[in-house]
Amino acid sequence: MKLKSFIEFSIYGLKTIFFKNTNPILATIILTDYCNLTCKHCAVNNIDKIIHPYEDIKEEMLKLYNEGVRILFFCGGETLLWNDSGKNAKDLIAEAKEIGFELVNIVTNGTIDLDIKEADIIFLSIDGTKENHNYIRGNTFDTILENVEKANDSNICVYMAINNRNYKDVKELCELVKNTKNIKSISFNFHTPYEGTEDLSLSREQKIEVVNTIKQLMKEGYPIFNLYSALDYYLDNNWNRPCKQCLVVENKKRFVCGRCVEIDGLCNECGYLFAAEFALLFGGNPKIIYETLKTYLKFV
Ligand SMILES: C[S@@+](CC[C@H](N)C(=O)[O-])C[C@H]1O[C@@H](n2cnc3c(N)ncnc32)[C@H](O)[C@@H]1O
Ligand code: SF4
Ligand code: SF4
User: Fold this and answer.
1) What keywords tag this UniProt record (predicted)?
2) Fewer C-beta within 10 Å: the chain N or C terminus?
């Protein structure tokens, strides 16, 4: 991480903790809901089938920057399917950097391209070992790994959504990450039970088992981009939500924390570890602050 970003984030953190600042620092812009996959756990693909126009996205980027947002994510649908006015997602990342965003990340299913040097972090969704990943995401595992092989200069973090089908795969996926040259880290979320996907939810016993596995793997030095202490808060469902410092923007509409905020009762069953981590961080939890600094300096 650049020194300038580090100082800027530290000042924001101090303001948040001591002056209860709730201005958003992190935003996700949804570029499109088109997707080339229909994953079993997903509730946000191919609903309106819209490619949002370049001009709207550019305007939103400028607004967010002027409002103080410094960490920007692009997401979808399949994010890399977006193109408009002769621009693609890589152009958007480059423009976001020119505007001044300190960290610009992208989330992708990895079936199209992973050679995205423009991004600070590429969150690449892999949902387990080959058999379970392909069960959830269609027959894409081999294609994704071929794309990883070609992505020499990118900072790739595997993003796994853990559910009751793939939860035993955590260790094996960590091994794969550790042994794959072009992958730097892995980050976990738990299944969030959107309507129609409840059958993938984990029981409390399964969650405890996975959390213990992840903690053990962290102790053994696997490159896990999550916060150790946040896992216990997640298990106890003991964190304040929605996270006010995070925004999602889709088609000019803004949501605090996530689009899911509008679904009755879902926040109480939230599996998005990053939401818990940010909420704890901005709530001023000292252990989480320390772990965030350590983790971000290592992986960003
Ligand atoms: C909606 S996808 C969009 C980006 C891209 N298409 C992809 O799959 O990475 C963003 C992330 O949300 C995760 N996700 C989708 N449904 C989820 C659910 N019910 N619970 C937890 N994570 C989920 C996906 O696994 C993916 O990592
Ligand atoms: S690739 Fe992403 S957006 Fe598409 S269906 Fe899967 S999780 Fe949803
Ligand atoms: S707390 Fe979880 S479910 Fe609620 S809006 Fe945030 S990410 Fe979505």
Assistant:
1) Iron, Iron-sulfur, Metal-binding, S-adenosyl-L-methionine
2) N
User: Whole-model pTM?
Assistant: 0.96
In this predicted structure, the answer to whether residue 111 has a pLDDT above a threshold of 90 is yes
Pairing of strands 26-30, 246-250: parallel
- Whether residue 133 is predicted with pLDDT greater than 70 in this model: the reply is yes
Nearest protein Cα to ligand 2, atom 7: 42
Best mutation site among 44, 107, 269 for ligand 1 pocket (most ligand atoms within 8 Å of CB): 107
- Tokens encoding 218: 């962290």
3 to 6, 8, 77, 125, 227: CA distances (angstroms): 5, 9, 33, 29, 22
Q: What are the residues whose beta carbons fall under 8 Å from the beta carbon of 275, sequence distance 6 or more?
A: 241, 242, 243, 246, 257, 258
What confidence category does residue 64 fall into, taking pLDDT thresholds of 50, 70 and 90? very high
Set out the domains of the chain in order of their start, with CATH numbers.
Answer: 3-17+25-299 (3.20.20.70)
Q: What is the pLDDT of residue 288?
A: 94
